[in-house]
Structures are given as structure tokens and as C-alpha cells.
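Appendix B. Chain record.
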Amino acid sequence: ILNAANLGGQLGDALGNFTTLIT
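C-alpha cells predicted for this chain:
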């Protein structure tokens, strides 16, 4: 579960960075 949470957080961070890059 901890691994899944970490992966989710990392994915969210990457997604936010990608969105910021596009914007």
C-alpha cells in the first residue's frame, strides 16, 4: 500500500508538472 501511495504521489506530481509546462 505504501508503494502504491508513493507511486500515486509521484504520478500526480509529474502530471502537475506536465500541466504547468503546457500552460
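Further analysis of this model is presented in Appendix C.
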